UniProtKB/TrEMBL annotation, chain A:
Residues 1-12 have a biased composition (Acidic residues). Residues 1-22 are annotated as: Disordered. This is Carboxypeptidase regulatory-like domain-containing protein. It comes from the Bacteria. Residues 13-22 have a biased composition (Basic and acidic residues).
TrEMBL record, chain B:
Residues 51-118 form the RNA polymerase sigma-70 region domain. The keyword Iron-sulfur does not apply. Keywords: DNA-binding, Sigma factor, Transcription, Transcription regulation. Belongs to the sigma-70 factor family. ECF subfamily. This is Sigma-70 family RNA polymerase sigma factor. One of its GO terms (molecular function) is DNA binding. It comes from Streptomyces sporangiiformans. The keyword Transcription regulation applies. GO terms for biological process: DNA-templated transcription initiation. It comes from the Bacteria.
Length: 172, 218
């Protein structure tokens, strides 16, 4: 399967083998190391990105230490028949043992429902660049809407009574 | 290349992988990674920072290997780390945190590719002139005029690398993360079998060397 990729340019090792094997393996290692140095110079991890990863610890690990994690159990991008179009809604379901959160995200905004139905306060988290999270309220039926256009890293923090539920981060 | 004091290079692979063709030295020590994950889960911020230092280049390599636009790539990188922070106390095999991050980044990359009708290649020439805000020791070396020839050699090496076929370019971009990723991590990063990585690596590196020789770079 991998071989067809190489058909455009016949690889030629000149029939070498035996004694040259160790030497070539060494040359391979040297070349990989040269690439590693080149990558460190020409394509390093951007410093500001690295900082967001360091800061993620306080924001997303320590901060929500008592929250339940709602795992992504359905993502229309992966689990549904692909639909092409300019504004196909992204359907997401997050689940804990006790509840699910269904979310539908479009270019216009987001709507969703907490099931079993319950009122809740829902913070929409969007990465550290939007420091102040938007908060919406779910009604008695657990329904909520938000007319903000969302993109990038995204998570929801739900508070209902004593319960705090955090959805898994994903990129919209 | 600076390594964290707590992530060491050049250790023997753990016995769990004895049945796999593990041929690489210098991989991030899995036992050390497992201990760091444990410490970070227990509230040690320095352990978290060591994890970021040790595994950031791998996550970044996965993003770059998938040729996302800069904006998409940054979001995937952030999403992978945010989710890792969330899962820190729940990860079943802390010593495989590198594979976990690589796999998470890969899946987010694939989602981006599904939503983007047309991919924006990142191999535009400006990349070659990109200068990071924070100067690494390597970059400082390049700044000196004496190193101009070395800089030119590195630039031409990178150019030949960028012109390889997709699969080779993708594999090598992940392999060149620092410290060198294990084959398990490469497998998680690219969704290819561990056993195919060694032979593919050999072909790709030799192909690149042949190109470099033909251009007189080597």
């Amino acid at each position: 399967m991998n071989d067809e990729v190489f058909d455009d340019d016949v690889f030629d090792d000149g029939g070498r083998g035996g004694d040259s094997f160790d030497h070539e393996a060494l040359e391979d290692d040297v070349l990989e190391e040269a690439l590693r140095q080149a990558a460190a110079i020409l394509d390093p991890v951007p410093a500001e990105l690295r900082r967001t990863a360091v800061e993620a610890y306080a924001l997303h690990s320590l901060h929500d230490v008592d929250a339940q994690l709602a795992q992504l159990t359905f993502d229309s991008l992966v689990d549904a028949i692909p639909v092409r179009g300019p504004d196909v809604p992204r359907m997401l379901t997050f689940s804990t043992v006790a509840l699910t959160v269904d979310v539908e995200v479009t270019a216009q905004g987001m709507m969703g429902q907490v099931l079993p139905p319950r009122p809740a306060r829902i913070e929409i988290l969007g990465g550290p660049q939007s420091a102040s999270a938007t908060t919406v309220t779910a009604d008695e039926m657990g329904r909520f809407t938000c007319d903000l256009s969302l993109s990038g890293p995204f998570a929801l923090r739900l508070r209902s009574g004593e319960e705090v539920v955090l959805t898994e981060w994903l990129r919209l | 290349m600076t390594l964290s004091c707590t992530i060491t290079a050049g250790t023997t692979p753990s016995a769990a992988y004895d049945d796999l063709p593990y041929t690489r030295g210098g991989a991030v020590d899995r036992v050390a990674v497992g201990a760091l994950v444990q410490s970070a889960a227990d509230g040690d911020a320095a352990a978290w920072k060591a994890l970021v230092d040790g595994l950031s280049p791998l996550v970044w390599s996965v993003v770059r290997a998938h040729r996302l636009s800069d904006a998409d790539g940054h979001e995937v990188y952030q999403t992978a780390w945010f989710r890792f922070a969330q899962h820190l106390r729940r990860i079943r095999e802390p010593q495989k945190a590198g594979s976990w991050l690589a796999s998470t980044a890969r899946h987010e990359c694939l989602k981006v590719i599904r939503t983007t009708s047309r991919l924006t290649p990142t191999d535009d020439p400006r990349l070659l002139d990109r200068v990071s805000d924070d100067r690494t020791p390597e970059q400082t070396v390049i700044d000196s005029e004496e190193a101009a020839a070395e800089a030119e050699r590195i630039r031409r090496l990178w150019q030949e690398f960028e012109e390889l076929g997709d699969r080779c370019r993708q594999l090598l971009r992940v392999l060149m993360a620092s410290p060198p990723p294990s084959y398990q991590e490469v497998s998680a990063a690219l969704g290819i079998a561990v056993g195919s990585i060694g032979p593919l690596r050999q072909r790709c590196l030799r192909r690149l060397r042949a190109r470099l020789a033909a251009r007189g770079v080597l």
